[in-house]
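Batch manifest, entry 17 of 40.
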Amino acid sequence: METHVERISNLQGLERAKLDRKTGLELYEDMTLGRRFEDKCAEMYYRGKMFGFVHLYNGQEAISTGVIGAMKKKHDWFCSTYRDHVHALSAGVPSFEVMSELFGKQTGCSKGRGGSMHLFSKEHHLLGGYAFIGEGIPVALGAAFASRYKKEAGKDINSDSVTAAFFGDGTCNNGQFFECLNMAQLWKLPIIFVVENNKWAIGMAHDRATSNTEIWRKASAFGMHGEEVDGMDVLAVRGAAQRAVKRARGGEGPTLLECLTYRFRGHSLADPDELRSEQEKEFWAKRDPIKKLARELLDGGFVKDNELKSIEKKIDNEISESVKNAMEAPEPPSQELTKYIWAED
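Output type: structure tokens
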């Protein structure tokens, strides 16, 4: 079986998204927001200000930015996993609302009820983060079905929303994955199955857990389009996502998109991360997707170095303000303990 590195080296000829100044700055800002937000979460967690399970996204930013940035916010739909902070930010959920949720505050996007793994925002079409692997895929499938149903049965010609379902490599050995791929292809649903293959399912190496390590090839069993992409290259991901969105909106059905990536931190902030070798971690750190995009922007003459530093400073200020306001925000009132559990009259 080919390794992640060998597979990525074979992808260099695939068409990447075009780069221009406006697009480059937007991509850089979104990825930097995701990275700096997660770094601040780690700081708050280790300072004892944030509790529970917290799973960070560092290293995988090119996937969230590349896919969601190629879609329409507040029109298309997004479904995440327990590693959901950055998906929420890319979808447009304000950093204050995400940070508030991590502190369990009333001002959080899930009103303080969800915490790190259960971010939700109806306004931003974020269908939720899910703690159990695979359970978000059927929800995403339902959103895609609704889009087609409204168009065909409801005669709504404007119903062309596409759903992106994000999940990891470990999920692809579960029943929901195969069942939903079958239904999506059978009904030609407008959905993109985005596999964030970071080589590790908690402490289980990907090549020890599956008989066929090339997940994208599993699409062929259903007659579905499958594609693998360098998940450390935001332009490569964006290009693949644009192709998948075009197929979905055009009624050509779903795509299984496997993004080869790597998480820079342990499985969660409680993980000592002792199973992965230092050599492996150092190798992938050199492929940092944010640094890669910065080099392309600078080398191509699209931006000046001080412009990138200005973006970073702006984001750092935004996140600091979000933390301050979130810590000062009110807790959910105790008399509302059962609110949002049952439907209200």
